[in-house]
Specification:
Layout: H1 2-11, H2 16-28, H3 32-48, H4 56-69, H5 73-85, H6 93-105, H7 109-128, H8 133-156, H9 160-176, H10 180-192
Helix pairs in contact: 1-2, 2-3, 3-4, 4-5, 4-6, 5-6, 6-7, 7-8, 8-9, 9-10
C-alpha cells in the first residue's frame, strides 16, 4: 500500500525499489506528477546505491512511458534512447514502438519507421525463444500492428512501395494467425495501393 512505501522511504530515502514501486502505484492512480517525481527519485537513488532488483534500462523505459502518456514527446524520446543504450538487461520491442509513437507525434516519421522495424526485429528474435503458442501469437499480433503503423507512416511520406511491403508483411502474419477479418481488411488496403 501507499503507506508501506511512504514508511520504507521515511526509513531509507535511497530506496530506489520503494520509489519505483510507489511510482507504479501512482501511475495506476493516474497521479502522473507524483509518479514522475518518484521515478526521478528512483533513478537518483539507484545512481547512489545500485541494487540487483532494478536496472537503469527499465527505469528509463518507465520514465519514457510516463513522458509519452503526458505528451512530453522529446522527454520520452530521450528516456527511451537512454533505455535502449544501456548494456544490461534485455531490449523490449515495446520501447522501440513507444519511441516510434513519440517520433510520430513530433513528425519525425523516418525515425518512427526505423523504430517500428527495430521492434519487429526484436520480436522475431523473441519468437525463436517462445515456448507457448500464446506467447508466439501475442508477439505476432504486436508485430502485425507495428507493420501496419509503419505502413501508414510510409504512405504519408510517399513511400508507396515500402508501405505495400509493410502491409504485405502484416497480411502474412494475419493469415498465419487465422485472423480473417484483419487479413481481408489488409488485402483491401494492399489492392488500393496497386
Amino acid at each position: 500500500s501507499m503507506n508501506d512505501f511512504n514508511t520504507a522511504l521515511a526509513m531509507d530515502a535511497t530506496n530506489s525499489i520503494a520509489y519505483y514501486d510507489r511510482s507504479l502505484l501512482n501511475t495506476r492512480l493516474e497521479d502522473f506528477d507524483s509518479a514522475m517525481n518518484d521515478i526521478n527519485n528512483a533513478i537518483a537513488a539507484y545512481a547512489s546505491k545500485p541494487n540487483d532488483v532494478l536496472q537503469l534500462r527499465d527505469l528509463y523505459a518507465k520514465r519514457g512511458q510516463l513522458n509519452l502518456w503526458t505528451k512530453n514527446w522529446e522527454g520520452a524520446i530521450i528516456d527511451y534512447t537512454n533505455s535502449l543504450s544501456r548494456p544490461e538487461g534485455t531490449v523490449s520491442a515495446t520501447v522501440y514502438a513507444d519511441r516510434a509513437e513519440a517520433y510520430t507525434a513530433i513528425g519525425e516519421y523516418a525515425n518512427a519507421i526505423n523504430d517500428y522495424a527495430s521492434a519487429v526485429r526484436v520480436i522475431s528474435e523473441q519468437i525463436q525463444g517462445t515456448t507457448t503458442v500464446e506467447q508466439k501469437e501475442d508477439l505476432s499480433m504486436h508485430a502485425m500492428t507495428y507493420f501496419e503503423k509503419s505502413a501508414g507512416l510510409n504512405l504519408s511520406i510517399g513511400n508507396i512501395d515500402a508501405a505495400k511491403n509493410d502491409l504485405e508483411a502484416a497480411y502474412a502474419i494475419a493469415a498465419t494467425l487465422n485472423d480473417a477479418d484483419t487479413a481481408t481488411r489488409l488485402q483491401k488496403l494492399i489492392e488500393a495501393l496497386q
